[in-house]
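ARCHIVE CARD
Drawer: 12
Card no.: 0347
Subject: one protein chain, sequence and derived structure
Cross-reference: see card 0346
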Amino acid sequence: MKNKPISDNLVGVVWPENQPGCDNDPFLYGQAEIQPNNPVEARSFQTFQVVYTAGKYGLDDTGSIRVVFRFANDAGKLQMSEAFAPNYVSASTNAAGRIDLSYHDVGHQRPWFKCLTARLNGGYLKEGDTITIIFGDTSQGSPGMQMQSFCDSDFEFRVLADVCAVGHYLPLSPQPAVAIVPGIPVIWKAVLPSLRRPGERFQLGIKAEDAWGNPSDKAEKTIIIESNLPVDGLPGKICYPMGEKAITIENLSVQESGTLRIALTSNGKCLATAGPLVIEDGSFSGYWGDLHGQSAESLGTGTAREYFDFARNKAFLDITAHQANDFQVTIPFWEQLNRLTVEFQEDGRFVTLPGYEWSGNTCLGGDRNVFFKHEGRQIHRSSHALLKDRSDLHTDALDARQLFDSLKNEDCIVFAHVGGRYADIRFAHDPVIETAMEIHSAWGTFEWLLTDGFELGHRSGVVCNSDGHKGRPGASYPGTSKFGAYGGLTCFLTNELTRDSVFECLRRRHHYGTTGCRMHLDVRVRFLMEARLFERDPNVFPDTVSRKIHEVMMGDIVKTSSDSCNLTVGIAAHAPIERVEIRNGSEVVDTIRPYHENELGSRFRIIWRGAEYRGRGRETYWIGKARFKGSVIKRIKRINHWNPERILRQCDYDTVEWNTLTTGNFGGFDIWLDRADRSVLELQCNHGSLRQPLREIGLDDIKLEAGGLNRQIRISRLPEQSTACELEQTLSIPLKPVGDNPLWVCVTTDDGFQAWSSPVFVFRS
């Protein structure tokens, strides 16, 4: 049996205050063992036998044991009714009486929400008697228990006992656990940064992932590396070794301007491509970060050390931070997090930001991410809900207004975000330190968190992060649970990789976010007459420095006497560009497509998007069919289909069916048809239906509004094959005479990724 890698004093969790006997005596309440306990593959079917042996107290009639699992666990849902189906569980005892089983997804306390209860009826256990629970009992045809989709060095079957039948469940010690390891590789990934200056150092990251996005240690290949530009330090060939989950090639550089793309091949087959990496002279480089996720010391997976290691060495990030829910952060864990950020911090290579998630209820302001520039700062929690130590209760900030007041003298940055709770920026917002809105994470896409602020006069930047709970910051796949999207990333445009430069970047909003890709995005606004650029928001800092300019970049705040300006957007993406929306506040003022109407072919895109509402139960399920009457389907391509076990497939020669979900983000498919102009689309789903002749679809989308929160189905027509991965275009934008003109762009690529620039805030003098 494995030992727990995480000490109990690092985990915010509260067990019953009183015990039947002496504290910490495992022989009083029993012990539990698991067989087999060897490592198992993610998402595989397995069978485990957990045996509880009663201790000195025995187990009274109607007493019970519980086996509880973490919130993040997305293993198959346990069931006791169909012995031939997956995840069947049975139980027995060698004593008198029967064992009744029940399972609830939310049946115990955080973080151990998922709960199987085995209740003894009609008898009792004395010391040495046993209860045996078989998870994935295959004796009557079940294939077994399906494991979670992500790796875990210590996946616990945490056993609790209510030996006196009083409803108080105490954890046993030690706890049964197994390791969950990656499967065989199915896809290779190669990762470059997106912006460097000539001669500046960078790295190439290489890994192979299994079907669920776990870096696999079962890959072994001789790889040929080819680049379109000369790269100093880049080998022409490497031997990728068995047993490694990722490798990096460090200290690379390109001396001349250009756009670098690198291809990895093996035996003549392309494994992966990396880039684009734009090499150009300028003030800034682009550094990629995921600043929002957590480990098993709170609600996530794995240790905090494993979290930082993954971010740096397996996701190839430049910047990261750990964001544990405050009401679970013990004093020892806060101290450990501060030690880890010091240990992993390395200027020029990897920047860490100490911080935590302030997790107040929505009515009190909702979720905020707090980042300090320096370690050793006071944590101000929203509550001590799961903390036994009350010695620092007086430091709590019970609502977001108190939080901002508590932080007013700190060198810190705050983001608002949408997680289990959503941030209410109408209730509280501090423009001095709350510099950005997180509009995409594994929870979904939430543009409204930014656009709500426009009407309130807020001047906030855009960030995207994972808010990951699966131990994979920077490469956060949603798995099979309520997380519906791939985790986001933020690109920081700054002159060097240090904490000081990252903080200055955030205070100037010189950053953009994506849904997980690393495209290069440049947004500039130019004025024919001189305008005035402010170093800080003049509404907040009346004495801020300003200077005369003709051109500004994303995030800048600028005053002009002109009634229009020119916006230039430059993009270099990993995939062809599908569209670029130019926005003034919440309004789309223009849409750029890198193709014309006469280039449209027999490819059609059907996507569904949106959410139920802003709160926890935002998942929207999409169940439907699309028949292309009069056509024959040549092929389909899934878009943002992150859960391969959910249905999205061709089910007849002219029909596609689906059963998927969105949480504010979008998913769907592209379809190539034979005789498309003779075809009529007949679409029916649980949120509406439509009938549309395909010959009538041109550049403009056909939309089916579906209620909820920005919920709709959108149908568009595309060229047979898109090729434009790079784009630069300038547009004239009329400016509103009153209030801010928040000018920003949203880029969508052919494969379904998106990027949003921080707005340029232009106001008229």
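Annotation on reverse: The first strand starts at residue 31 and ends at 35. The mean pLDDT is 96.
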